[in-house]
Specification:
Elements lengths: L2 H9 L18 E14 L5 E9 L8 E6 L13 H17 L14 H12 L6 E9 L10 E8 L20 H8 L23
Antiparallel strand pairs: 1-2, 1-4, 2-3, 4-5
C-alpha cells in the first residue's frame, strides 16, 4: 500500500480535532470476504499474550488490507480483576465458529489447560492447518464510553462463504521447465520455520479493552 493509500485509509472517519493519534486503526466496520492468512500464539512486549488470527481481504476495494484479531483466554487482568464471563464466552464461540469453517471441531477440552498461555498455543497449533480458508469477517464497532479517546471497541463475527475451486493439475500437464514451488520454498526455509514467529510487533496495554 502506498503512503497516499495509507493516508486515505487512515484518515477515513478520523476526527483530527478530537480523535487520539493512538486510536486503534484498521478496516472500517462492515463485512469483508477474507482469507485466513496467519494463525499463531502471539506474545507482546507488555507480557500479554493471545491466540491471534490475521485475516486478509480478497475481494472489493480493500483487497490486500489485513485485520489482526487477538483473543485472550486469561480469566483475570494483570491487576487481578476478573474478566467478564461474557467476554470469554464470546471469544470461545468465535474460535469455535472459525474452527467449524475449517472443518476442525473445537470443544470444551480445547480450553482445559491450566493457564491461558497453553490454551493460546494449543489453539494456534490445532487451527493452523486451516490457513487459506475463506470467510466473511464481520467487524462491529461499539462506543468506548469509559475511554472514548482510545476509539471504539472492535468486535467480530464470522459467516461461512463459498470456497474457491481447487486447481487440480496432473504433473504430466506441467511444462518441463516449471519447478515445484513448494519444494523451492521448503529449501529456502530455516530448519525450524516457525522459530522466529513467536512474537508480533510491540503493543502497549492501551490496545487492551481492560485496565
Amino acid at each position: 500500500m502506498s503512503l497516499r493509500d495509507l493516508a486515505t485509509a487512515g484518515l477515513d472517519g478520523f476526527d483530527a480535532k478530537h480523535d487520539a493519534v493512538s486510536a486503534p486503526q484498521g478496516l472500517p466496520a462492515g463485512d469483508y470476504t477474507m482469507s485466513v492468512s496467519d494463525i499463531d500464539h502471539r506474545v507482546f512486549k507488555s507480557g500479554w499474550d493471545a491466540f491471534g488470527v490475521t485475516f486478509e481481504v480478497v475481494e472489493g476495494e480493500n483487497v490486500g488490507r489485513k485485520e489482526n484479531v487477538n483473543l485472550s483466554f486469561a480469566e483475570t487482568t494483570k491487576t487481578g480483576k476478573a474478566i467478564p464471563e461474557f467476554v470469554l464466552d464470546r471469544n470461545i464461540k468465535l474460535v469455535a465458529k472459525l474452527g467449524a469453517m475449517m472443518n476442525i471441531d473445537i470443544t470444551g477440552e480445547d480450553f482445559a489447560a491450566e493457564n491461558e498461555t497453553d490454551i493460546h498455543d494449543h489453539l494456534a497449533q490445532k487451527l493452523r492447518p486451516g490457513l487459506g480458508t475463506i470467510v466473511i469477517l464481520k467487524i462491529i464497532e461499539t462506543p468506548n464510553k469509559k475511554h472514548p479517546e482510545n476509539g471504539p471497541f472492535r468486535n467480530y463475527d464470522l459467516q461461512e462463504t463459498e470456497q474457491p475451486d481447487e486447481l487440480n493439475v496432473d504433473d504430466q500437464e506441467l511444462p518441463s521447465n516449471v519447478t515445484d514451488p513448494v519444494a523451492e520454498k521448503a529449501d529456502a526455509l530455516d530448519p525450524d520455520p516457525f522459530a522466529n514467529n513467536a512474537t508480533t510487533p510491540a503493543s502497549d496495554d492501551t490496545d487492551l479493552p481492560f485496565d
